Amino acid sequence: MHIDHLKIFVTVVELRHFSKAAKVLNLSQPNVSLHIRNLESELETTLFIRSPKQVKVTAAGEMFYLKAKKIIALYEEAKQEIADQKHIVQGTIKIGASFTIGEYILPRVLAEYAKEHPQVNVEVMVGNTEEVIKKTRSNELDISLIEGEVSEQEVEAVPFMDDEMIIIASSSHPLAQIRMVAPDLLHDQVWILRESGSGTRAFSNQLIQNLNLQVKRSFVFSSSQGIKEAVSAGLGIAMISRLTVRKELELGELKEINIGNRKFTRKFSIIKGKHDFVSRAHDLFIEKMIQSNKQL
């Protein structure tokens, strides 16, 4: 049994699809199917029930999946320990990031990290906070960077940065003409919100609830860029990370609404699954992210 056979098997289980697994692994579908058939022959059992519409994992397949994940982890651990003995930082890191971090912080940090550690391959998945936590909990991601609080017991969280949240409006919005806005003036406004599951959406909902605001109407966008464009067009107001609108504020394209000199902040956190093994490459990336707080 070869380690590559196990990796192919695990990928098919996680994606529940032979064609998608083949694409991710950069193999042909017949090649993936052949590896699985050989594995089933060696184990003398059926691992998948195949049909034109779906791939279902058998009870034996589910059991073997858990064991295969452990074997792969032990293999990677041994491989990394040997590399560490040679003072080489190598391997692959699967990083998840919520949209704000993935679009405005992670690229610069990764550029520096890649220069320092050219033998480390990095795979990045950007999604909303809920999606990223879910994939970290299931060990599909090694490390993730998220907004807001983490209550999941299956992951470990380390705050690495404070993020200032501000309310923005177009330069022509009536609230943008007021130097200091009383909270009650936020009643009956149109709000531009992120989708459910987003850390920014959770923070916005909490603010609206804490100030007992009546929302006149709301529009939902799945990206910070969409929110900025909607606000700039005069569709409504929004709460968003200052990091995402620094340029627009400097150019006067958007205006910050000062709510009684209040400051709103949230935490950015590094989370990871509770693995038995964390490589040197993972540790160095976490150190790099923590250091990035001083540079932003």
Automatic annotation (TrEMBL):
Domain HTH lysR-type: where? 1-58
Gene3D superfamilies, alphabetically? 3.40.190.290, Winged helix-like DNA-binding domain superfamily/Winged helix DNA-binding domain (1.10.10.10)
User: InterPro entries from the entry?
Assistant: LysR_HTH_N, LysR_subst-bd, WH-like_DNA-bd_sf, WH_DNA-bd_sf
For this UniProt record, give its keywords in alphabetical order, as a comma-separated list.
Answer: DNA-binding, Transcription, Transcription regulation
Matches recorded under Pfam families:
HTH_1, LysR_substrate
Xref: SUPFAM superfamilies: Periplasmic binding protein-like II, Winged helix' DNA-binding domain
Q: Does the keyword DNA-binding apply?
A: yes
What the entry lists under CDD domains is as follows: PBP2_CysL_like
Q: Which GO terms describe its molecular function?
A: DNA-binding transcription factor activity; transcription cis-regulatory region binding
The text of the family note is: Belongs to the LysR transcriptional regulatory family.
Name the PANTHER family for this protein.
Answer: HTH-TYPE TRANSCRIPTIONAL REGULATOR, HTH-TYPE TRANSCRIPTIONAL REGULATOR CYSL
Q: What is this protein called?
A: LysR family transcriptional regulator YeiE
The organism encoding this protein is: Halalkalibacter wakoensis JCM 9140
